[in-house]
Design a protein that fits this description.
About 25% of the residues lie in helices and about 35% in strands. The protein is α/β, with parallel strands linked by helices. It has a seven-stranded antiparallel beta sheet. The protein has a seven-stranded mixed beta sheet with strand order 11-10-9-8-12-13-16, sandwiched between helices. Strand 8, helix 4 and strand 9 form a beta-alpha-beta unit.
């Protein structure tokens, strides 16, 4: 059983939970995910790891209420336990294999959309702890749907907020903000990473291509069983069939 240590509603439909899972926390790396099963008869729900504490033996998950299974997960309270939390699964972000010299030569820009901001956080934190320059763009429809703002401010060089209605930060899409940073403000990046809704990642990739900027995208939203057995996350990447859960979830955006 996996005890819920803390629970916080970030928005009316997005919940953050810290869960006891010592072995998982010890092995976790940025970019990986886990499977949560609320009870013995519950559905297997893949969720990206949004934080992990190896010393405390806890992992943090962020769940958006969409259907019955996500609603059940969110209904659990502090002190209660999930039946299963399995992981870490998937291939970690490619930068963890880079040497210190390679990392210091990089300048990253992360483009986060909605609940996709949660899995961006551990990647930015990992890079920041190693002295790598990282900027972050967070996009949401309105200011009250923006998550992880304070957390991200603490681990990145520059944070840029975007809202559709202009209620906070830049009024417009994250792609427009990226263009403005590079074309008007003279920012230079060696690598972009986009995590969020599929349509956002598609246009972030098209914008990055126009700007001649390499980009990584995460296909975590396609996953179902998380082990490659169901085939639901089958995608064509660079003309080859790949499975997002066991060969990803991160891929070169130009190849997807």
């Amino acid at each position: 059983m996996y005890k819920i240590v803390s629970k916080e509603m970030l928005t009316p439909t997005i919940c953050r939970m810290k869960v006891e899972a010592p072995r998982l926390a010890k092995a976790a790396n940025p970019g990986q995910f886990l499977i949560v099963r609320a009870d013995e008869k519950g559905e297997r729900i893949p969720l990206t790891i949004s934080a992990y504490d190896k010393e405390a033996g806890t992992i943090t998950i962020v769940t958006q209420q969409i259907g019955a299974s996500s609603s059940e997960i969110i209904s659990y309270e502090e002190g209660e336990c999930f039946a299963d939390v399995v992981g870490p699964l998937g291939i970690p972000s490619e930068f963890i294999e880079m040497s210190e010299e390679e990392l210091k030569a990089q300048r990253y820009v992360f483009i986060a959309g909605g609940v996709g901001t949660a899995p961006v956080y551990p990647q930015v934190k990992w890079l920041h702890e190693r002295g790598v320059a990282v900027d972050v763009i967070i996009g949401a429809k309105t200011a009250d749907l923006m998550i992880y703002v304070k957390e991200m401010e603490a681990v990145c060089d520059n944070l840029y907020l975007c809202t559709d209605d202009g209620s906070v930060g830049f009024k417009g899409l994250v792609t427009a903000r990226l263009e403005k940073l590079i074309l008007e403000e003279g920012k230079k990046y060696t690598q972009a990473v986009a995590i969020g809704p599929m349509i956002m990642m598609k246009f972030a990739t098209l914008t990055a291509k126009k700007l001649e900027l390499p980009i990584i995208v995460s296909l975590n939203t396609l996953m179902v069983d998380g082990t490659g057995m169901c085939g639901a996350c089958r995608v064509t990447v660079a003309g080859k069939t790949r499975f997002a859960c066991v060969e990803g979830p991160e891929f070169n955006g130009y190849d997807v």
